[in-house]
Fold:
Amino acid sequence: MASGVSGYAAISTRVRAMYADLLSPQDMVKLSDAPDVASLIAALKSTPYGKYLAGLKDNELTPRRAILQIKHKLADSYSSVVQQAPEQTRPLIRQLYRYFELGNLKAVLRSIQTVSAWNADTPAWDRVREVLFPFGVYTSIPAQAMVETGNVASAIDLLRGTPYEATISFAARRVSAEQSLFPLEVALDLEYWRKLWAEARKLAGKDREMAVKIIGSLLDMNNLMWVIRYKIYHKLSEEELINYTLPFGYRVRDEDVRAIAAGSDIAAVISRIYPNITNASSFFEDPQSGLPKLEHALKLQVMKQCNAAFVGDPFHIGIPLAYLMLSDFEVQDLIILIESKYFNLTNAEYRPLLLKTIPL
Amino acid sequence: MFFPREMTEVELIIPSKDLVAVARVLSGQGVFHQLDSTYLGMESSGPSAWQDKAGNYSALERRVQGMMQTLGLPEMYPAHAKPGSLIDYDTLRAAVDRVDEDVKGTGDQLIGEKKRLELLESQLRQLEPIAHVNYEVGALRKSSYMHSILGVIEADKVERLETSLGRVPHVFFTLKDDPKKPIVWLLGPRSASDNLERAAKSAFLNPLSLPEELNGTPEQITVTLKQDAEATRQKIAELEATLSKLAGKYKDELEKLLWDVHISRVIADTIVRFGQLRRTYVVLGWVPTINLDDLRMRLKQDSPEILIEAIQTSRTGHHSGVPVALMNNKWLRPIQDLVTTFGRPSYGELDPTLLIAFSFPILYGAMFGDIGQGLVLMLVGVLAHNRIFMKGLQSLGLLLVYAGFFATVFGFLYGSIFGFEGHLIEEYLHFHFEPMWMSPLENILTILGLAIDAGIVILIFAFLLGLFNNIRSRDWAHFWFGHTGIVAICFYFCFLTVLNGLLGTTPIAPKIAAAISQLPLPFNILTPVFALGVMFNGLFRNMVEGHRPLIEGGVGMFFVTSFMDLFEGTISMLSNTLSFVRVGAFAVAHGGLSLAIFSLAGEEPDLGFWITIIIGNIFIIGFEGLIVYIQTMRLHYYEILGKFFHGGGTRFEPLVLNPSQEEA
Structure:
């Protein structure tokens, strides 16, 4: 098993080179200054995303298509990192990558529920595939066959033999009883993060320390947002809130989640966990607009953790993990940019949502 | 045989009235590679009616296949089925509906009964862990003061469930401790039933699905469920018997229907890709030139007014769009598979199948030379080819026959029979047998040197084939300055003289390199000249091809990359040449492995000795045989094919009615 200097010499160098390729705030300003989608895409062509957009003709470059192409870069980053990572860390990276497959699975199931509302002239699969993450041949879900079944129960049947079978077998009964995908999505999320956390905990030494720090930070954000959203929007009971969250993380302890579930002041809990988030109570004055801001603030915390991984000892899994997360955040920023240009939003409307901060 | 089949591009203008007849001819001959011509059409008023028709036929085909599956019939077409024509959709659908009416009811009933049996068996399994509880299950449901939930939960959710109930009075029992799906019983006061239900539901605790009407103790319920399950099994058997009768009744009809629907679907699919003009259709495609006259005649027969324009395609130049039909017969199919795994030749390119047909078995035989083991390989190959053994590897069977044959030939040359060599043959097999050439074990360095020599010959041949391909494609830039161009070949010769200087008079010094060094040429001048040629070949290629700018990324970077080109080229030549030493090394290793088996077997030719020899030979054939196969493949893919073969051809995929007609 390669580890330490020997295991990380190559990947660390490569990831640092890829890290240098991430868009700078200046790049983001330049992209943000584009007056419309076409100009934005033209500007993107001169960035490292250019080669993913180059093959497309101008008339094919719809915002949705451009987003799909941009995601290809993230997919390539994952396969590159998986191939070069030390063997013992690959299960963790693969599980992290599975997050996008999980997203695809949810998108496929949601599309089946809403398919009747679509334009019947366009085959359902043609509509769905453009929004899926380009997971490629490594995917374990038969997405097209699922969409073509036209109903959730049959689609779920097709997941036999996939890593999702066991989880789904428990949640499927509730899906048919409640006619809602909510329990299934919750079960899939919980299972995904449990497995990811378990993979992080399997590592040893510095690898484990960094994985727990980075994956834990991401988990903290999800756990907090889950418990807050379920409480505020879904009005779930204390027991449900506890069962729909996870008892581990990096900074967020189980007691924090349970305190929120039991009715403690959420803003106070957040301020205690993240002392640098000073205006926590403002997020809850109007949750509709406040919660996305809270999520944004939590994502910045994760980004900070990721950027910190590049400082100091470079021979650990923290650097590849941090790079992959920063790439994902960058793609999220670009999606916001493309969609904002498409919907003609003003700078003031979308710039605060970007993770790479751009002055207004 | 050395090139893909000659192809002709065909453009057809078809009168609307002959649309179906022409589509039938095109799809029935198995020689027409259709191109999508819809973009040539003038009518752009949305999807054509043929698209709907094709979709309908396709759905009908799936229905017939589904019925055949339900009846347990293989998806077959009638024996001696002849290409028919497009049959009216409504006629076909009526026939399919009629059969389906008979089959569907029974089929659906069978599925329902199977699901019921599955449910009953699942209920029986759920009852197992509480079989010993002498308490009425119904009473738990009807309890006035207690709320009880009995069910299955994922093991890793148990702890969280208990945490969530921290403030709710309850008791929690694990009835069956399963590492993945324990069966648990949650019990609490009825006043807290809402909390208990919410907690159980959110922990995905699935309550046992026992029907409301089932009452009594678990033991009594089990008896009832078992009786139900037995009755269901009988019902399933009856329904299967009915389906079996229906299968007999409808077999021929369904096969005929499948064929008719399939033909109609293929014809409709073909028409969908035609370009529709006002009163005519335009069709583009490729036909092997040899089949053109026959196709033309048949088209004219069915559509006298059709316009056919055939455009001959030269084999020289670039042909990325021309489909490639390889011309190899069935005996070369396994070799062709090896080649196409690496890449499909492009239209103007040399098909290396025949070359590999010789080089692959010869190199394999040279590494695995043994008369007995070679014959065993041949036997296994014959059995596999005739599907007696290793079914499904028919194609590999032939490859084993060829490899086994040359292993046998080299066995004679090396004097090896099942690992017995030299005095061992006389001692244990009681006859005299001398190697016809040399024993690798006794001439280790000689055979290593010869292997390098053989490699040099093969590489030079591969370089020349690369030049040949460049000439055919009129690619002069690569002809002169490509990585296998004239300059690179000249540098390779110079490189061999340097190699000869390095290896000197050592036994593994390649004799060909020594012979080249003896040529009356100023190699000390030529070597740096051609080295510079290789170093700047990118620049020269740009000059010949007219690419501008000639130098990209600044002069400094240009020199660095040029130097790296030279360095990489030299290293490649060295590694490619020395790579062939493995041929000799494996020949030696083969003898060494046999010796190891003999030392395990001992000296006395008793039963144990022979058993060890037999097991050892099986091991050598299976293990070493596989390794040598991989090595041979590696030599071809990395050292040989890469020198002259680019691949990237488009597969020739003619329209066919019967899938068994398709080219492999």
